[in-house]
Amino acid sequence: KTAARCVKILENSPSIHTLDITGGAPELNDNFRYLVRLARAIRPDLKIIDRCNLTVLQEPGQEDLVSFLAEQRVSIVASLPCYSAENVDKQRGSGVFERSIAGLLALNEAGYGMPETGLELDLVYNPLGAFLPPPQEALELKYKEELEENFGILFNNLFTMTNMPVKRFADFLYRRKELKDYMDLLVRNFNPDTAESLMCLNTINVDYNGSMFDCDFNQQLGIGIGSSELHADGKNVFDIVSLDDLKSDSIQNDNHCFGCTAGMGSS
Questions:
Q1: What is the number of alpha carbons within 13 Å of residue 226 lying toward its C-beta?
Q2: Cα dist. 221→25, 49, 164 in Å?
Q3: Using CA atoms, how far apart are residues 18 and 9, in angstroms rounded to an integer?
Q4: Which residues pair with 127 in a beta bridge?
Q5: Cα distance between residue 182 and residue 263, in whole Å
Q6: pLDDT tens for residues 230-267?
Q7: Closest listed residue to residue 80, CA positions, set 92, 62, 66
Q8: What are the tens digits of pLDDT across the range 18-44?
Q9: Can you tell me the distance from the alpha carbon of 121 to that of 130, in angstroms, rounded to the nearest whole number?
Q10: DSSP secondary structure letters along the chain
């Protein structure tokens, strides 16, 4: 019901130009392909993004996933925290790098990341610890050089993301007594120039039961759009007809927002 409602709102909101599907492995949700097919049928010009963790491409039952994504012209944004096996496996678990490389090779074979195919393959880097990511352009060049030279892998763009002081990472910092120092780092590096391109200005996050949030991080923290003392849980997709119905709702923010505004930004 939630997936169908999202498509209906998409149909009623011509200003929407992108459907961005994320999660631990969104492809494993029973409604993933239904949502992609229906959205593509209703809006052929829509940009559809799959936030892919790459290892899902080797999961049982997903043997045709790459071909499905290519047929539906779904753009891929995949997390790869480093171009070396040691660092990736340290952050994500043993064997993750090898499976990620296999996934990237399969995507390349289907045309992703290749010039003139129009099938976009972007990678995402985030630091391994409590520090800001390096400049995006220089790191992108290094990623492209290492991945092509060592594995023959091509991709379009690299995006750098700051680690957000929420949930698991915040707990990790708290246990190490580093949370305050990390927050101080983010605040010291506040960059007002990043405010014009924050995701909360043009994105609505919807969770599996239809609750709506200004961004992925507010979703993790349970800070819903329109939440207040009178409406603690915030608004739901079943409360609106189109995204125009949210124009009067202010963006919810808190200390974690310094993560998107530190350094060169992270949205």
A1: 16
A2: 19, 23, 11
A3: 13
A4: none
A5: 13
A6: 556 799 999 999 999 999 999 999 999 999 999 988 86
A7: 92
A8: 999 998 899 999 999 999 999 999 999
A9: 27
A10: -HHHHHHHHHHH-TT--EEEE-SSSGGGSTTHHHHHHHHHHH-TT-EEEEEE-SGGGGSTT-TTHHHHHHHTT-EEEEE-S-SSHHHHHHHH-TTHHHHHHHHHHHHHHTTTT-TTT---EEEEE--SSSSPPPPHHHHHHHHHHHHHHHH----SEEEE-PPPSSHHHHHHHHHTT-HHHHHHHHHHTB-GGGGGG-GGGT--EE-TTSBEESSHHHHHHT-BTT--SSSTT--BGGG-SSGGGGTTSPPP--GGGHHHHBTT---
Q: What is the pLDDT of residues 164-205, one digit of tens each?
A: 999 989 999 999 999 999 999 999 999 999 999 999 999 999
Structure-block tokens of residue 240: 């609106």
- The residue count of the chain comes to 267
Other C-beta atoms lying within 10 Å of the C-beta of residue 182: 23
Q: Predicted confidence band at 141 (pLDDT cuts at 50, 70, 90)?
A: very high
